[in-house]
Each structure stands twice: as C-alpha cells, then as structure tokens.
Amino acid sequence: MTEIHPAKKAAIDLFKAFSLGRSSNELYPVDCEFIAKNLGIEVIGESMGDDFQACLYLSGKVKAIIYNSAVSVAGRLNFTIGHELGHYCLHRNLGDRQCTLDDLDNIGSTPPHGQDIEREANLFAANLLMPASDFRTQLMGSPADLELVTALSSRYGTSLLATLYRLKELSAKPITVIMVDKFDTIISVWKNRGFEELYIPKSYQLDEPLPYNRTHTVVNPEYFGIRQENCPFVLYQSSIDYKFNGMKIVLLTGEPM
Ligand SMILES: [Zn+2]
Fold first, then answer.
1. What's the fold here for domain 134-256?
2. 36-52: buried (b, 16+ CB within 10 Å) or exposed (e) per residue?
3. Fewer CB within 10 A of the end CB, N or C, for the chain?
4. Residue 236 CA to its chain's centroid (Å)
C-alpha cells in the first residue's frame, strides 16, 4: 500500500476535527478562518500590493495569518488561509513564510514531502477544503463541465483553478484542462490518467476563436490539434474566461467510442 502524503493526512485530520458535531449541511465551505482561530492563529486582512497574497507570522506566542484584503478573486481568500494553515501544520519549523500569487497557483502533481513546500501547502488546502469523498459524491450524475466546476467552487469556496485541478485528480472520467492565451494558442495542458495516451500539442494555435460555453458540447478533436485517428473518444468541451489577459480555460472530457 502506498503511504498517504503527509500534507493529505494533516488536512484530512484537520477536516475531521472541524466536522465533529456539525451536520453535513454545515460543513461547506470549510471555514478556514474559524479553524485558524481554533489553533490560536489570528487572521488579519491588510490592503497591500498586487503580488503579495499572504504570510504566516510566528513570533513567540503570537501566531498570525496576514492576508492581502485587496485581492478579490472569488474563492481566493479561503484557499489562501487554507494554504497558510498548510505551512503552519507542515512547515512551521521553518519559521515565517511569505507567499505570492504564483505560490498560490503552484498547483500540480504531488511532490515528495518537503521538496516543494508551496505546492505541498496547496495540496493541503485542496484536501482540507475539498475532501475527496464529498467531491466524488458531487460528481455523480452531472456532466463534468465548467458549469459543474463553477458550482463546486462556490460550494467549497475555492478558486476555479484549484477546483479544476481537484476535478482532474478525483474524476473517474478522462479529464484535460487546457489554458489558452488571448491569441487562441494552447499554453498549458493538464491531463489525468484517462487521457494519458492522448497527445495535445502545446503551442498549437486554434483555427477559430474559442466559443464560450460553460455547459459542454461535442467538439472535433482536430480543433485542438489532436489527430482524429489517434482519438478513441468522443470529446466534449466547455470553456470560460480566466481572470486576466484574455486567457481562457478549456475543460475537455471524453467518452470512449
Ligand atoms: Zn505558501
């Protein structure tokens, strides 16, 4: 049996403690500020420059999470406090920690414990805010599209990106998340196991601008530069604007043919 990652274990344990005595409809979004205060950590908002997101401050008896109250992306605050709680639970022996927007977006495959503490704190926050069993229950009976992801990000109080990554991790269906820039060029591709064999060329420029639709529709694989003969799926795509610079997020799912 593979050992559970310490960041996941710490988050699951903290969620269990938080859920004690609460009914299921009192759990979400998980109240990170409440959890922090229960651990004796003050949570303080200050309006600061764009890049600073939050820090964990540890000095003698004073413990605080200070976050940038000028940052207004939906779901960001709860995830940010969850991230700082991750540093507190996993890395407080390293002292104070200051985190940027890039640190909060450093979401990806699970690093070995201690090797990439920003990603580890994000893994912790994802597991604390979006527990796997509840997340999988929410996926049942709904198409995996951006309509669903938007609803889940408001259920959990998480950013769209963090919620999409959790979907990619936990869905039994093939899932790919594609980021497209304002020139309609693919700049990043995240695939789960179900789409492992599917080759999507990075830097590929779409022939036509992306249609916006949160509910998914069938799409021709060649639209994303995928050769039809190499695609054993019927592909569905949904898409949404992403925070700045005309970027878009595309969610691709597939049903075996
Ligand atoms: Zn951090």
1. Beta-Lactamase (3.30.450)
2. beeeebebeeeeeeeeb
3. N
4. 21
157 C-alpha vs ligand 1 centroid, how far in Å? 18
Q: Find the 90 Cα to ligand 1 centroid distance in Å.
A: 11
Sequence ranges of the chain with CATH classification 3.30.450 = 134-256
| Domain covering 6-129, topology | Arc Repressor Mutant, subunit A (1.10.10)
* pLDDT score of 177 more than 90: yes
The pLDDT assigned to 36 comes to 97
* 104-117 pLDDT, tens digit each: 888 877 888 888 99
Distance 218 CA to ligand 1 centre (A): 38
Q: Which long-range contacts (CB under 8 A, 24 or more apart) does 96-100 make?
A: 96/55, 96/56, 96/57, 96/58, 96/59, 97/55, 97/56, 98/52, 98/54, 98/55, 99/53, 99/54, 99/55, 100/51, 100/52, 100/53
Q: Which token pair is 133?
A: 């069993």
Residue 87 Cα to ligand 1 middle (Å)? 7
CA of 47 relative to ligand 1 center, distance in Å: 18
Q: Which residue has the tokens 């004796």?
A: 40
